[in-house]
Amino acid sequence: MVSEPAAEHDDIERAMRAVPRREFLPRAQRPLAHQDRPLPIGRGQTSSQPATVAAMLRLLRVPLGARVLDVGAGSGWTTALLAYLVGPQGSVLGVERDSRLAAWGGANVARTGMSWASIEQAIPGTLGRPREHGWDRILVSAASPALPRALVEQVGYGGRMVIPVRTTLLLIERLPDGRTRATDHGGYRFVPLIEDPET
């Protein structure tokens, strides 16, 4: 059972202190870890701007014990931040389409000792990771050209998803009656999400 949302501003700040970005960057980028801007991590991808990550996590309102999916896990930084927020009672699965990044990000997460979080390579042709009863929270760190139906369907009852669509950050909420509500939370830039053609 998921507890009431508790990840307010102090929790996000604590998570970002406890899970330093530096540990999730290539060695050459580590001296720049404190800068509030995206940094390249290789394979055409970036570690998102810390202020953007914090804004997304605040919107997501991650409760202790939640089951969370992190789409576009990259270096593993957001997966580890989510793991800190859910605590050992929860679980976080990061999925990453690039096999080398998935392996590196997975190793980065493993080094944190938070065994309830992991990263796997995305299943070809599948966006996200379908799960019975859906996910409590889904974080998407890449921009989609349209809201992907396949991911919306993976949001469980009472769940939330934060996803950039084109340049707009959307919050998707699954209401108790099963309907979904989308709200707009400003403009951002992200690397593109590669979607399943069926979405």
Automatic annotation (TrEMBL):
Belongs to the methyltransferase superfamily. L-isoaspartyl/D-aspartyl protein methyltransferase family. It holds the Pfam family PCMT. This is Protein-L-isoaspartate O-methyltransferase. Keywords: Cytoplasm, Methyltransferase, S-adenosyl-L-methionine, Transferase. One of its GO terms (biological process) is methylation. CDD domains: AdoMet_MTases (cd02440). GO terms for molecular function: protein-L-isoaspartate (D-aspartate) O-methyltransferase activity. The keyword Mitochondrion does not apply. It is found in: Cytoplasm. Residues 1-47 are annotated as: Disordered. InterPro entries: PCMT, SAM-dependent_MTases_sf. Residues 1-25 have a biased composition (Basic and acidic residues). Its EC number is 2.1.1.77.
